[in-house]
Design goal:
With about 525 residues, this protein is of the alpha+beta class. It is about 55% helix and about 10% strand.
């Protein structure tokens, strides 16, 4: 159970040889039969029934030449590789059976896990599988909430931590709770990762090019949007719960779980070590923490990456659908339009009216516009084309062999433009941050008392209010680490937030900034 990376951990796995050797077409049916029987709680099998089952899974030409002697050779080889375990049957009626050493066979744990994995891969096919189920995040919220629920009698002396309800559980119940929590986290994250990888795969790109994609576009985008809404609702709650978890409580729980895990009787050559188990649980908890809150390096969390990938997937699917629709509209039949125009022309009684209609319908569509790249000579917006100097337009021959002469162009450095754009961006960002610091300088800010604000200030304020509404404690955190809490003023009135681009009517909220430091883990 150690997490060290010694070379002994990377030795060759001989149990996997049966998957790719020359006689794999014989070895695989044998071990698949063992796996299927193990699912039915039949562990020890005899060669006679193995032979019959393997022949049923082979081609007729191969099954006709597959004898018991070949089966014995295959079983011996699988035993040498470690795929099968065997013991001699105690019941023999002939001296020949005793000399042949009639064995019974059982599949090894490695083999069962290999076959289970292969079965899952066969069901998955060429896709990554996975799903985006926001309800799984809701279950994760309820499971984590047990870590913050106080006991009915939680009185404690000054300086001591309160008592939690989970501490009254038995070690066995704690063990199953932690197993369920971590497996739920792995299931949620793995399914989301696989589904997003599937959306970005070559197979899905090919599907997007087909006509059938337009039929499923709305379902996929609606599925992604519902997942995003559920994810945003649950993620804020999970982040708030993770911050509230008492570290001393975690230490007690992990030691109790490790003690119970060690006490489970197992027939293993290497006994479990309690300290290593506790370290593994801490590593798993750290993985949950970093997935939702990040590692503190500023790179962001995996949750933010998932939200960004989901948003980008929605945009990509929408773009594909738009292009597909435009392509279809450009290739559609104009038969109905032409019939309508024909009836319109037939209804006219004068040829002059027909000429006017023809000029209006067909004249502009046949007009050609020539564009010539010439230097700009005036900034006057009221100048006309007649005031410009004539330009030369080069007509290219319409022959297949014609190739326009090209001159090699030099690579121009854009470093100065990039530095200027970066400086402009940083300047704008600093000005906006200074404006935010000016408006939200105090520890208490009321929406009713705000001056006329810019659109980016309004957008930032609404994001803060949205974060607090999704938190159980109505608390949130700004991008620069300031913790705040949003409460209603209690008047029940609606206020008018004045902005430079209009007026927004909203509830009368009050923001309280709790401290200037970032949340400590």
């Amino acid at each position: 159970m150690s997490n060290n990376h010694s070379l002994s951990n990377y030795k060759a796995i001989t149990e996997a040889k049966y998957l790719s050797v020359e006689n794999a077409y014989r070895y695989r049916p044998i071990l698949r039969y063992f796996y299927e029987q193990q699912q039915r709680l039949r562990y020890w099998l005899r060669p006679e029934e193995i032979l019959q089952a393997v022949k049923e899974r082979m081609e007729p030409s191969e099954a006709s030449v597959y004898t018991e002697d070949l089966l014995q050779l295959d079983l011996q080889q699988l035993h040498d590789w470690g795929n099968l375990q065997r013991k001699q049957s105690g019941k023999v009626s002939k001296i020949e059976d005793f000399k042949k050493k009639r064995y019974r066979y059982q599949a090894s744990p490695y083999t069962i896990k290999f076959e289970r994995l292969i079965e899952e891969l066969e069901e998955m096919g060429d896709t990554y599988g996975g799903s985006l189920e926001s309800t799984q995040f809701d279950k994760l919220v309820e499971t984590l909430r047990l870590l913050t629920r106080l006991a009915r009698v939680s009185f404690h002396k000054p300086g001591e931590r309160p008592r939690f309800e989970i501490e009254d559980w038995t070690d066995e119940k704690l063990y199953h709770w932690w197993t369920e929590l971590y497996e739920l986290f792995r299931k949620v994250t793995n399914n989301a990762r696989d589904y997003m990888a599937n959306l970005d795969s070559v197979q899905v790109e090919d599907v997007m090019m087909t006509e059938q994609f337009l039929l499923y576009k709305d379902k996929v985008t609606d599925y992604l949007r519902r997942f995003m809404m559920g994810l945003q609702r649950s993620s804020y709650q999970i982040e708030g719960l993770l911050v509230q978890v008492n570290r001393a409580l975690l230490n007690d729980i992990f030691h109790r779980i490790a003690g119970y895990d060690v006490s489970i009787p197992r027939f293993e050559t290497t006994p479990l070590i309690k300290e290593e188990l506790v370290k593994r649980y801490y590593d798993q908890w750290e993985g949950i923490w970093q997935w939702f809150l990040g590692d503190g390096s500023g790179r962001g969390s995996d949750l933010e990456d998932l939200q960004r990938e989901t948003t980008e997937a929605i945009r990509r699917i929408t773009r594909y659908a738009q292009r597909k629709g435009e392509r279809q509209s450009s290739m559609r039949s104009r038969r109905a339009d032409y019939l309508y125009l024909a009836k319109w022309f037939a209804s006219l009684g004068d040829v002059k009216e027909a000429h006017c209609l023809s000029a209006a319908v067909f004249g502009i569509s046949r007009m050609r516009h020539m564009w010539v790249d010439t230097p700009k000579v005036t900034e006057d917006i009221y100048s006309t084309i007649w005031d410009m100097q004539p330009a030369e337009y080069v007509v290219k021959p319409r022959v297949q062999e014609y190739r326009e002469r090209t001159r090699p162009s030099k690579i121009e450095s854009k470093d100065e433009e990039k530095k200027a754009m970066l400086a402009e961006y940083l300047k704008q960002k600093a000005e906006r941050q200074a404006r935010l610091n000016q408006i939200f300088a105090g520890y208490r800010v009321s929406v009713r008392e705000l001056p006329v604000i810019e659109p980016f200030v309004r957008q930032t304020l609404l994001e803060w209010i949205g974060k607090s509404m999704a938190s159980p404690a109505r608390e949130g955190k700004t991008d620069d680490g300031r913790r705040f809490k949003v409460v209603e003023s209690g008047t029940g009135e609606r206020v008018r937030l004045r902005c430079t681009d209009g007026i927004l009517e909203m509830p009368d909220y009050v923001l309280y900034f709790l401290d200037e430091n970032k949340v400590k883990r």
